[in-house]
Structure formats: structure tokens, C-alpha cells
Amino acid sequence: MAAITTTVLLFFIMILYSSTINATTTTTQQRFKEAPKFYNSPNCPAIQQSDKCSDDAVHVAMTLDATYLRGSMAAILSVLQHSSCPENILFHFVTAASSSTSFLNTTLSSSFPYLKFQIYPFHDAAVAGLISTSIRSALDCPLNYARNYLANLLPSCVRRIVYLDSDLVLVDDISKLAATPLPNDAVLAAPEYCNANFSAYFTPSFWSNPSLSLTFASRRPCYFNTGVMVIDLERWRAGDYTTKIEEWMELQKRMRIYELGSLPPFLLVFAGNIGPVDHRWNQHGLGGDNFRGLCRDLHPGPVSLLHWSGKGKPWARLDANRPCPLDALWTPYDLLQTPFALEA
């Protein structure tokens, strides 16, 4: 009996050790393969290497950190692979000021030697005092709120961006999304989901307060996912929308008006006043809900972008040998260099 107990104990120690090694690899020791180089088609406009502000370029903004780096690398590859003008894509990466910028820079340059990109440090102090706890701790990371400050972080000459989360892949040309019109002075565009229960994104305290619920009186608000947005930074700056978002976050600190992280302030400021985008550009929710992250199917209709929003991330489920069927669509973009990969 003692021998069996010792064997079982050693087994669990090995599992714990393996989990620790895997966790360390996930956050600090990831190595990635070099991606192929993709070239412009003949009809692409020429952009000078030094021109960081060209209106002919597609400007893509993403956050970047060690925890989601594997997802970010896959997203970057998917953007380039399906673009008709990949050499005209300029990436703007926002990362926590406390993170190792040199590590991220080296990782990007090694896997994408030809990539045009800039890294911008984001100081947690800018938003830390405004963050309220939400239903999932991962949503409380200050970097999740960096999208509120893109107009301040990026050069003023950058007038329009496509913002992308790190847990998605494109299967279509991003220039189509970037060309989305923004009518009637709309500041941003995103797919809207008007069948979703919009009232559920705010607490009873919000809806029972007339001065607060009247926020939407002149609008027809619908839920939209902030993981895929086309943003006019000139209009954002002119309207000082960062301050408008911060004001709602300050109110949330005084009274609980929502539960879900960085999304509700965007809904409060923009819902009902955004430009339309076809649903094909955000097949979201593939990561399940915010609690269990169960498998989900695609929404009906065509697909240009697959988004694993929710708790379940494809790389985590694959590593745990518990993938969902749709995670196989993410795998071709995974650049992680595994220990068992054959050297070329």
C-alpha cells in the first residue's frame, strides 16, 4: 500500500512539475518560427519605408503581452497571409510599460523580419485607479483598457486604424475591413448584434436611475464587440472620447452600473451611433462564455474573421488536449516552435 501511495505521489509531483514548466514556457520562454514573407500584388500603391503615417497604408492596432503573445503572432500571420497588399500594413503594438519591450521587439523581428511596426508603452497608472473588478479577473488587466487611449498613444498623423484583439484570425483581406465607411460623423464602426439582450450589460441600479438610463433615450443601442473595430482617430481626438469613457469608469467606481470589464463604457459612449460592419468580420464568441469557455459553433453566414472571445482560447485548449472542433481553424496560423519540431 505504501508503494502504491509513493507511486501516486510521484505521479502527481510530475504532473505539477510539467504544469509549471508549461506555464513558464507559455509566459516567458516561447519561441516562434519565422513566417513566410508575403508580397504586394502589382496594383498596390507604393509606400516609403520611412512613411509611418501614409493614408494608403492599413494601420492595425493591437495590444501585445507575454500572456497572449502566441495568439498575437497567429493574428499577425493571418492578417499578412490574406492581404492583397501585405507590405502596406503598418502595425501599432501597445504593451505595458513594465513589460520587456526588447523581448517583444526581438520576437516580432525574428518571426516577421519584414514587418513594419512600432511598439508604444502603456503606463498602467493611466487607468489602474479607474478599473473596477469584473466577472473574470483576466478582464481587469490594465492593458485591456489601452484601446481607450489609442488616440493619445499613436502619432497624431495616424488618422484611421483597425483595432484587433489577440484571440482572432482573419481569413479575408483586411483592406476590405479598413475601407469601412464611417457615416454621419460616426467615430467607429463594428458589427452590431441587435438581437442580444442589451439591458443585461448593465445593472438594475443603472436602469432604475432615470438620469442614467436616459443616456440611451435618443439612440437605438445595440451590443457590439470591441475586439474588432474601425476607428477614426481624428474624430476621436476632436470629441475627446477618452475623457467620456473615463467619466463612466469613474462613476462605476462610485456605484455599480455594469459587470463586464472594458466593454460597457464603450457601449455607454458609442452604442447606437456607430457605423455598420457585416457580421462576417467578427464571428465572435468561439471561446465560449466568461465562466466555462465551452465549445461553440459559428454563427450562420459567411466568415472573414474568427474570434475566440470568451474564456476558452484555442492555444490553451490545444495544449490541454481538449480542443474544440473550430480550434482546428486557428492551428494553421500557430507559429509556436515546439520542442519536438524538426530543424530545417
TrEMBL record:
UniProt membrane topology term: Single-pass type II membrane protein
Pfam families hit by this protein: Glyco_transf_8
Cellular component terms per the entry's GO annotation: Golgi apparatus
EC numbers for this chain: 2.4.1.-
Signal sequence bounds: 1-23
Pathway assigned to this chain's UniProt record: Glycan metabolism; pectin biosynthesis
Chain ranges passing through the membrane: none
Cellular location(s): Endomembrane system
Primary enzyme class: transferase
Keyword vocabulary terms for this entry: Glycoprotein, Glycosyltransferase, Membrane, Signal, Signal-anchor, Transferase, Transmembrane, Transmembrane helix
InterPro entries with a match to the protein in the record: Glyco_trans_8, Glycosyltrans_8_dom-fam, Nucleotide-diphossugar_trans
Domain of life according to the entry: Eukaryota
Any one GO molecular function term: glycosyltransferase activity
UniProt-listed Gene3D superfamilies: Spore Coat Polysaccharide Biosynthesis Protein SpsA, Chain A
UniProt similarity note: Belongs to the glycosyltransferase 8 family.
Protein name: Hexosyltransferase
Organism annotation: Arachis hypogaea (Peanut)
